[in-house]
Specification:
about 400 residues, Rossmann fold, two-stranded antiparallel sheet, alpha/beta, 12 helices, 9 strands
């Protein structure tokens, strides 16, 4: 449940939001996806990523859904890239650190690909604000006006299918290529719950949507398997009860609503419920595809450590406060969100877990990635990486 408000100009708790309809037609150009012999058969030579703002490396910014999204300017990207890249953080994301660990270049956003560009090492299809369920689901329930993008997981899978002929020409070529590829399906699904919550849904009502969301994630995973994927990682949700935006919007006067780390119990319990149901569904998918390696990525466990022992990971600033924001107990202010007038970014993002109220800092994403690549938060483990995440 990452609550993709990196879009910022729209917010799920305002009443005057407009539906974003993205009409973007792409063509298969003949991108360069030259087949090469595997130099390390035990590692990954390409990555294909799907999801939302936890993984988007620039698709939303170039999609045209908003003319001037704030993630397209500083302070987004200030820490590592020194300029905005369309990532919803101060720097690199989990997907970037995974690419580094396997000696691969950062994944290019699908919507920025140009004719002749090499896609040998993979492509990123993730879009900030994306949902697991199609936009029609929300429109039928009167929630169409609060959607930030209609580029759902199903549409992203469609993009991959359209691009596939440029990746490999024959079944034999595809089998050889995908044996050395990692497919990352998510994180996705968090926004499905966020939209419902913004429309007034309580935790019990959100739980009713879990089977639908999980089904879409498993359907997408199955679709990629049918296209030839043999190793897929499917992440669960983060501990959203510890996020600055949820702590602000659902602030309670009841002490018993919080755990010993100051996080909202109900929302963390909900994230655990989603993750449990996703795990069960992936277990069935494994049984039906014995030759495929399906990996569950425990984002919740990897991130929850920061709130149990923040200083152990270098987080010396207030753990539950956002680095970039416009004030308030958790430095999240709906009228002055990160990147807008009235907001300010801290000078030391690496000491913070939370970046803008919704998304994590580069430092936090690094530790999540380490937990996935080096263990123990990937089940079963990912392949050994040639490089350590430093």
């Amino acid at each position: 449940m990452d609550a993709d408000s990196c879009i910022h100009l729209l917010h799920p708790y305002s009443n005057n939001m407009k539906i974003l309809i993205l009409l973007f037609t792409t063509f298969t150009f003949g991108f360069q996806a030259k087949q090469v012999a595997s130099s390390n058969p035990h590692s990954y030579e390409s990555i294909f990523s799907f999801g939302d703002s936890l993984s988007d490396t620039g698709n939303f910014v170039v999609s045209g859904s908003l003319a001037f999204p704030v993630i397209g300017k500083l302070p987004y990207g200030v820490t590592f890239f020194k300029h905005a890249t369309g990532r919803c953080s101060d720097g690199r994301l989990v997907i970037d650190f995974i690419a580094e660990a396997y000696g691969l270049p950062y994944l290019q956003p699908y919507l920025k690909l140009t004719k002749g560009q090499s896609i040998q090492h993979g492509v990123n299809f993730a879009v900030a604000g994306a949902t697991a369920l199609d936009a029609e689901f929300f429109q039928q329930r009167g929630m169409g006006k609060i959607l930030w993008t209609n580029n759902s997981l199903n549409i992203q899978i469609g993009w991959f299918k359209k691009l596939k002929p440029s990746i490999c020409a024959t079944r034999q070529d595809c089998d050889s290529y995908f044996r050395r590829s990692l497919f990352i399906v998510g994180e996705i699904g968090g926004n499905d719950y966020n939209y419902a919550a913004s429309a007034g849904g309580n935790v019990t009502q959100l739980m009713a949507n879990v089977p639908l969301v999980v089904e879409e994630i498993t359907k997408a995973t199955s679709a990629l398997i049918a296209e030839g994927a043999v190793e897929l990682m499917v992440p669960g949700n983060l501990p959203v009860g510890c996020s600055a935006v949820y702590l602000t919007i659902f602030r309670s006067q009841k002490k018993e609503d919080y755990d010993r780390n100051g996080c909202l119990k109900a929302f963390n319990a909900f994230a655990r419920y989603h993750n449990k149901q996703l795990n069960l569904a992936l277990g069935k998918l494994k049984q039906n595809n014995p030759g495929v390696n399906i990996i569950y990525a425990d984002y919740f466990g990897a991130a929850k450590r920061f709130f149990h022992a923040p200083r152990h990971y270098g987080f010396t600033s207030a753990t539950l406060r956002a680095c970039c924001g416009g004030g308030g107990p958790f430095n999240f202010n709906n009228s002055a969100r990160c990147g807008h007038i009235g907001s300010k970014a801290c000078s030391n993002p690496s000491t913070y877990v939370n970046w803008d109220g919704f998304h994590l800092t580069e430092a936090a994403y690094k530790h999540v990635a380490k937990g996935l690549v080096e263990g123990p938060f990937s089940y079963p483990p990912l392949r050994n990486s040639p490089f350590k995440i430093a």
